[in-house]
């Protein structure tokens, strides 16, 4: 229940970020930076709350957490486009190419890699639009990495494994010699 509230609030935050771009412009950046940090914090918290819940089945909203992550990231991208930092053609091209790649390869790892520059967009913009917020993002990242270090390594391993699967390498294949080498070594 609490995890769902935290997850749902991220949708509200994403809507605010887009609203800020449409109605308030670049002057709203400090509020967007704060909203982004709150969204990231809620993303971390909702995961811990969901794992601590007695139900082993995720709720409807919990099962869609990954998509809500994407909505948050794209909201920041839309905001950057609306305030004129990203050209509209760049926005459209990135979304079209990214969507096609994800549809063709059906990979969460690929989605994560494609989202990474977009997730970094607001913190990077902070250093030029509101430098204090840039440093707040850095501090948040350090604290989050320290407090959630076990989960961070789990996420890195999941991403690495998915990248290997996407490349077509399984554990057994990665430890075997290629057929040409097997012949040379007499195996």
Report on the structure:
- The protein is mostly helical and 187 residues long.
- Helices cover 81% and strands 0% of the residues.
- It has nine helices and no strands.
- The chain has helices at residues 2-24, 29-52, 65-82, 88-105, 108-129, 131-147, 149-166, 171-175, 179-185.
- Helix 4 runs antiparallel to helix 5 (108-129).
- The longest helix is centred in the N-terminal third of the chain and has 24 residues, at 29-52.
- The model is unreliable at 170-187 (pLDDT under 50).
Estimated share of beta-strand residues? under 5%
Task: Indicate the radius of gyration in whole angstroms.
Answer: 20 Å
Q: How many separate helices?
A: 9
Uncertain stretches: 170-187
Shape: globular
Structural class: mainly alpha
Average residue-wise pLDDT: 84
Q: How many distinct beta strands? A: 0
- Main sheet summary: none
Q: What's the end-to-end separation, in Å? A: 57 Å
Order of helices and strands: HHHHHHHHH
Work out the helicity level: over 70%
Question: What does the secondary structure layout of this molecule look like, with pairings?
Answer:
Elements: H1 2-24, H2 29-52, H3 65-82, H4 88-105, H5 108-129, H6 131-147, H7 149-166, H8 171-175, H9 179-185
